[in-house]
Design a protein that fits this description.
With 302 residues, this protein is an alpha+beta fold. Helix content is 23%, strand content 19%. 42% of the residues are buried.
């Protein structure tokens, strides 16, 4: 099946003036950059058929009426007590078809269909709650910890106020194991900057500090994919960055469907997958053992 574009003039981002045709052409421009990061990874879609200024909905289960050519990964989900057919986007035509379904955001798993139980990405979500919190400063502090542990990382905008930090890892760790390690990493970081950072998932216990969100490392969790558009009035994009671009002057709203394709691709070459055993030992020796925790439970900072 070759995807076709219908209703090209439909405004999906009314404030920015971006139409469905603009989304289609944007994905054509960035497919070569985006697909290496999402191919083979189950997706959760955010669709806004009436535009981002009207209610939209998240979709995990691809409708049975979707064309057979649209790839999917079917898995039993205990929380839903049913099988869910997650959509996949492995080539440009998949992206085009999803764009025509008014998909304005693509959120990807941290594992692939080849080894769904073995993640190959460790991720951290830095989302400031207000203008006084600096995601840029937090990201640089987190990178300092990771560098000290011998782990290379990459950074991108969330497409909104925050930043996402990715650490490629070898596919030898389970989700719980990797989430526990991620919690140890951010505890070490928060311990160095206790007035500014926290690992507390409960908002009431953050005390005005920026959350280093480690919880996304659980099974079937997602983040907005690299180069994914976002349902932001400005038509922003979750944009890969060079680390030297991460400053307090960084304006995530500057990266849009119109401007992002004109940038170089800092993630064209990602760090090689890494092992965590040595880093885990170093954290444990420093008083930060890798112990998994439920994001719903109270979590101490150190």
């Amino acid at each position: 099946m070759t995807a076709t574009l219908t209703s090209p003039d439909k405004l999906l981002w009314p404030q920015a003036g971006f139409t469905k045709a603009d989304l289609w052409h944007y994905l054509e421009q960035v497919a070569g950059r985006m697909l290496p990061h999402i191919a083979g990874r189950p997706l959760t879609l955010l669709r806004h058929p009436s535009g981002v200024d009207r209610p939209g909905f998240f979709q995990k289960n691809l409708a049975a009426s979707a064309p057979a050519s649209v790839k999917r990964f079917t898995v039993w989900t205990p929380s839903s007590r049913r099988e869910v057919a997650y959509p996949l986007a492995d080539d440009l035509d998949d992206l085009r078809w999803l764009a025509n379904q008014n998909t304005v955001e693509f959120h990807h798993w941290f594992s692939t269909t080849a080894r769904p139980d073995r993640p190959d990405l460790l991720v951290f979500d830095l989302d400031p709650a207000n203008a006084t919190q600096s995601a840029a400063r937090a990201a640089l502090w987190l990178r300092e910890i990771l560098d000290g542990l011998g782990l290379a990382s990459a950074v991108k905008t969330s497409g909104k106020r925050g930043l996402h930090v990715y650490v490629p890892v070898e596919r030898r760790y389970g989700f719980d194991e990797l989430r526990g390690f991620g919690l140890a990493v951010v505890r070490a970081c928060a311990a160095r900057h206790p007035d500014d950072l926290t690992v507390q998932m409960r908002k009431a216990e953050r005390g005005g500090r920026l959350l280093l969100d480690w919880s996304r490392n659980g099974a079937a969790q997602t983040l907005a994919a690299p180069w994914s558009p976002r349902a932001h009035p400005a038509g922003t994009v979750s944009t890969p960055l060079e680390w030297d671009e991460v400053t307090d002057e960084l304006d995530p709203t500057a990266f849009t469907l119109a401007t992002a394709p004109n940038r170089p691709d800092p993630w064209a070459t990602m760090p090689a997958p890494q092992r965590i055993e040595q880093a885990r030992r170093a954290l444990a020796d420093a008083g930060f053992p890798s112990v998994d925790a439920s994001p719903r439970a109270r979590t101490r900072d150190a």
